[in-house]
Amino acid sequence: MNKIVKNVLGATLVVALSAGVARYTAQTTRDEQNSSHIDSTLFPQQASNNSPNQLASINGASKQPIDLTYAAEKSLHAVVHIKSTISGEAQQYRQQPQDIFEYFFGTPNRQYPQRRVQAQPEIGFGSGVIISSDGYIVTNNHVVDKANEVEVTLNDNRTFQATVIGTDASTDLALLKISGDEFPTIPIGNSDALKVGEWVLAVGNPFNLTSTVTAGIVSAKARTLGVYSKGVESFIQTDAAINKGNSGGALVNARGELVGINAILYSQTGSYAGYGFAIPTTIVTKVISDLKKYGTVQRALLGIMGSDMGNNLMADQQKEQEDKLGVNEGIHVQKVIEDGAAAEAGVEVDDVITGLDNHKVTKMAELQEQLAQHSPGDKVRLQIVRNKKKMYLDATLRNEQGTTKVMKKVDEQVLGAAFVPVPEKMRGRLNLGYGLEVTGVQAGRMKDAGIRKGIIMLKANGVQLHTTEDFNKVFRAASRTPEQVIFINAMYPSGRRVNFAVDISQE
Questions:
Q1: 194-203, 265-274, 283-292: which has the minimum mean pLDDT?
Q2: What values do phi and psi take at 153, rounded to 5?
Q3: CB 303 within 8 A of CB 337
Q4: Catalytic residue positions, numbered
């Protein structure tokens, strides 16, 4: 089992691995009147069971220590165990002579036949949270990533095969569905209303031993750790004990409301060491609603590059920056993307963004969290400081393709082709170090582009193709660009080079 380790604050941040398979693991009260629930049109069975029977001591902000038995009772049965299986890919191995004399004294450079061996499947474990009574479950993307089979076990030991409705690597969230109804659920709370120091429970079902809970407080909010490449990070930090296999489990406030999905374990050893991080429900609610409705997330972008004021600056540099810009906190704009929402609104380099709509933002993580709740086409009001003066700009957010249209889920099946790494014998004959051989073509975008069976793809959008996953990564990246085109450098088995342009847009 691989371990993904990241040094943070002088220690090791373990993007935890559930038993048996390399994947991240797991490991962030609001006033009742501010309750925020999943869109009822998308999740009509979402439990709105905010019971009016509140214990007198249940006030996470003002009564500590606190009786958390109510919160545990409300959440235990809605947290499930998830087992994901990735089928092992067949591998080619060159057979060696079985006779020792043939091995040492046989024909020099003799090519022995290859045999195909099926690799053992990888099995991983994690947790999930039932968020609607008709069987929708939210978990982490890394719990089910690439899985061919997903099995869900409830707290009462019932077992179901789950369908993956959609995944989003940028936020590390996934939406599953099991068949049935009247499943236990957790009501969705508003993570925005959480206060540092407030009591929370971390609920998980890591080892299929039924759900377990640990208690702690909110240690910080809007944390950025850099564990999701180009992803959205605005974690709730908690000291509630989070261990391996808790990926996708629930962070619950004192009223038994879901306020986060456990995602990251901070540790030097791979086990709990005092810090855990959860994805806030402000992000979760929007992402899972999009996955259910569209199959992909409708991500809204502002179109800037910048950093937190004072980030990575020495004290004298920080003071110089503050004197120049006239503000000591916010997001310092260092680049405005051409034709983006910010450019259209009039944002300029060296502006400092200090608010979005009615929300104060002091760092990039807070801005990301606010934007993650919006869709392309939404209008927002930016509060900025320019030349030491406060001003407001209105922006219309855009998607990754630079438009306000709904983005459709682009599936690899639109390509209409199958391909495998070039066999070793063919690589030797053609003097190739890498490449993917097209083994079959049917109606689809590759056939439309002129690609035929037998062609060897060497590069896609400049990326060398060693494995099928190399191509899939290029495909996913290209589907999020305005052009939605894959440029392929290839060759025929004869050795003649050729180029193709594959249009993967779905109008």
A1: 265-274
A2: -120, 125
A3: yes
A4: 142, 172, 247
Kindly state the helix (H) or strand (E) to which residue 318 belongs, with its residue range.
helix 315-325
Contact of 142 with 24, CB cutoff 8 Å: yes
Q: Determine the longest span between alpha carbons in the chain, in angstroms.
A: 86
How far apart, in whole angstroms, are the C-alpha atoms of residue 403 and residue 458?
Answer: 32
Question: Any idea which residue has 């240690």 for tokens?
Answer: 219
Return the structure tokens found at 198: 């407030």
DSSP string, 417-444: EEEEEPPHHHHHHHT-S--EEEEEE-SS
Q: Are the C-beta atoms of residues 283 and 232 closer than 8 Å to each other?
A: yes
- 468 vs 473: CA distance, rounded Å: 9
What gap in Å lies between CA 146 and CA 144, rounded to an integer? 6
Contact 28/153 with Cβ under 8 angstroms?
Answer: no
Asked if pLDDT for residue 7 goes beyond 50, the answer is no
- The rounded distance, in Å, linking the Cα atoms of 469 and 434 is 13
Which of 331, 328, 322 shows the shortest CA–CA distance to 365? 331
Whether residue 393 is predicted with pLDDT greater than 60 in this model: the reply is yes
Cβ contact 18:25 at 8 Å: yes
Nearest to 259 by CA among 279, 233, 243, 238: 279
* CA angle in degrees (0–180, nearest 5) for 186-281-130: 30
Placement of tokens 């709105």 in the chain = 48
Is the pLDDT score of 391 beyond 60? yes
Structure tokens at 234: 């605005």
Across 487-495, average pLDDT: 92
Asked if 388 contacts 325 with a C-beta cutoff of 8 angstroms, the reply is yes
Residues comprising the chain, all counted: 507
Q: What pLDDT is stored for residue 343 in this prediction?
A: 95
From the centroid of its chain, how far is CA 369? 14
Residues 139, 395: Cα–Cα separation, whole Å: 32
Q: Look up residue 231 and give its two tokens.
A: 């992803």
Average pLDDT over residues 328-347: 94
Q: What is the DSSP string of 253-268?
A: ETTS-EEEEEEEEE-S
Measured distance CA(453)–CA(441) in Å, rounded: 6
Which residues are 64's β-sheet partners? none
CB-CB contact of 38 with 44 (8 Å) = no
Of 111, 147, 107, 129, residue with least CA distance to 20:
147
Q: Can you give the three-state secondary structure of 270-296, one letter per residue?
A: CCCCCEEEEEEHHHHHHHHHHHHHHCC
